[in-house]
Amino acid sequence: MPKTKVAVTIDAELLARIDALVDDATFPNRSQAVELAIEEKLGRMARTRLARECAKLDRAEERALAEEGLSRDAAEWPEY
Protein backbone atom coordinates (compact mmCIF):
# COMPACT_ATOMS: atom_id res chain seq x y z
CA MET A 1 0.00 0.00 0.00
CA PRO A 2 1.42 3.42 -0.87
CA LYS A 3 2.39 5.66 2.00
CA THR A 4 1.89 9.39 2.37
CA LYS A 5 4.16 11.64 4.37
CA VAL A 6 2.41 13.80 6.99
CA ALA A 7 3.55 16.20 9.65
CA VAL A 8 2.12 15.93 13.15
CA THR A 9 2.65 17.69 16.43
CA ILE A 10 3.35 15.32 19.33
CA ASP A 11 3.87 15.98 23.02
CA ALA A 12 7.62 15.96 23.82
CA GLU A 13 7.22 13.31 26.54
CA LEU A 14 5.28 11.04 24.20
CA LEU A 15 7.93 11.49 21.51
CA ALA A 16 10.64 10.58 24.04
CA ARG A 17 8.77 7.35 24.81
CA ILE A 18 8.54 6.55 21.09
CA ASP A 19 12.25 7.29 20.67
CA ALA A 20 13.05 4.94 23.55
CA LEU A 21 11.16 2.17 21.76
CA VAL A 22 13.13 2.89 18.60
CA ASP A 23 16.39 2.90 20.56
CA ASP A 24 15.46 -0.49 22.07
CA ALA A 25 14.77 -1.80 18.53
CA THR A 26 11.11 -2.42 19.36
CA PHE A 27 10.42 -0.40 16.20
CA PRO A 28 12.81 0.36 13.37
CA ASN A 29 11.80 4.02 13.28
CA ARG A 30 9.33 6.62 14.56
CA SER A 31 7.11 6.32 11.51
CA GLN A 32 6.45 2.64 12.02
CA ALA A 33 5.81 3.12 15.73
CA VAL A 34 3.26 5.85 15.07
CA GLU A 35 1.67 3.97 12.16
CA LEU A 36 1.18 0.83 14.26
CA ALA A 37 -0.23 2.84 17.18
CA ILE A 38 -2.77 4.52 14.91
CA GLU A 39 -3.71 1.21 13.28
CA GLU A 40 -4.24 -0.47 16.65
CA LYS A 41 -6.29 2.46 18.00
CA LEU A 42 -8.55 2.49 14.94
CA GLY A 43 -9.03 -1.27 15.30
CA ARG A 44 -10.02 -0.92 18.95
CA MET A 45 -12.43 1.88 18.07
CA ALA A 46 -14.08 -0.30 15.44
CA ARG A 47 -14.49 -3.17 17.92
CA THR A 48 -15.92 -0.96 20.64
CA ARG A 49 -18.37 0.54 18.14
CA LEU A 50 -19.61 -2.97 17.36
CA ALA A 51 -19.98 -3.66 21.08
CA ARG A 52 -21.93 -0.41 21.58
CA GLU A 53 -24.26 -1.27 18.70
CA CYS A 54 -24.78 -4.81 20.03
CA ALA A 55 -25.62 -3.41 23.46
CA LYS A 56 -28.56 -1.57 21.88
CA LEU A 57 -30.18 -4.85 20.80
CA ASP A 58 -33.05 -6.37 22.76
CA ARG A 59 -31.84 -9.87 23.69
CA ALA A 60 -35.34 -11.38 23.91
CA GLU A 61 -36.37 -9.94 20.57
CA GLU A 62 -33.16 -11.12 18.89
CA ARG A 63 -33.58 -14.62 20.35
CA ALA A 64 -37.19 -14.77 19.15
CA LEU A 65 -36.11 -13.72 15.65
CA ALA A 66 -33.30 -16.29 15.62
CA GLU A 67 -35.59 -19.10 16.76
CA GLU A 68 -38.48 -18.12 14.52
CA GLY A 69 -39.49 -21.13 12.48
CA LEU A 70 -36.98 -23.48 14.09
CA SER A 71 -39.60 -25.75 15.64
CA ARG A 72 -41.39 -26.10 12.30
CA ASP A 73 -38.10 -26.75 10.48
CA ALA A 74 -36.91 -29.19 13.16
CA ALA A 75 -39.86 -31.49 12.46
CA GLU A 76 -38.62 -31.83 8.86
CA TRP A 77 -35.03 -32.71 9.82
CA PRO A 78 -33.99 -36.35 9.51
CA GLU A 79 -33.07 -38.39 12.58
CA TYR A 80 -29.36 -38.93 13.12
Architecture overview:
The structure is a single chain. The chain has 80 residues and is mostly helical. Helices cover 68% and strands 0% of the residues. The chain has four helices and no strands. The protein has helices at 12-23, 30-55, 59-67, 70-76. The protein is elongated. The N and C termini lie far apart (50 Å).
Oligomer: single chain
Strand share of the residues? under 5%
Order of helices and strands: HHHH
Shape: elongated
Kindly report the average pLDDT value: 88
| Quantity of strands, as a count | 0
Find the structural class using helix and strand composition: mainly alpha
| Percent of residues in helices | 55-70%
Largest sheet: none
- How many angstroms separate the termini? 50 Å
Number of helices: 4
Low-confidence stretches: none
What's the alpha carbon Rg, rounded to whole Å? 24 Å
